[in-house]
Amino acid sequence: MELSDPFKAEDFKKCADFHGHVCPGLAIGYRSSKKAMDWLRENRADDEEVVAIIETNACGADAVQVLTGCTFGKGNLIFKDYGKHVLTLISRKTGDGVRVSLKNDALAIGEEHQQLMGKIRKGDATDAEKERFKELHWRRSREIMEKTEEALFDVREAHEALPPKAKVEPSKPCDRCGEPTMSTKLIAQDGMMLCRECSKGQGA
After folding, report:
1. Among 3, 26, 134, 140, which residue carries the largest CB count within 10 Å?
2. Domains and CATH numbers, the chain
3. Which one has a higher pLDDT value, 202 or 113?
């Protein structure tokens, strides 16, 4: 199915390429990231200029990384496992923050869509059902892209303590498995300095 408006924006294509497909969750992450960046009047973070706090590791998290430049690798993407479509974005430059949360029922899908999703997850869907699911998934994604921000999100100023910038520490070998480990992450145990995995008896 060929993508049509409103999926033609280059930044959305980048999100879809990174995530692997178009889906409602990705659309939510795209819209919330755009809203948060506009509210803060910030550019994409080259380093740690912006900090993002996400409260779900669902599909939208990929759009957050692409659009905000906040990533796990840079240490400016913080994950809180709350199961909520909430993005908090904070500027290190100004200290300003914004919280963008999905409104109730804004991502709700219909009964047929839900049933087909269950069949696909169980591996029970026919080819025809898979195609129908793709159609409904695409249609719901489009609806999210076309809705007003007011219909999708609650937006408010956020006051969060900024986390320290990512630390780069020298590595030392774990005394049990020998694998190089950030020195500040080693744990003293039984006269040895162990990585966290080995300290729990799970290492080599």
Report:
1. 26
2. 10-157 (3.30.1330.130), 169-204 (3.30.60)
3. 113
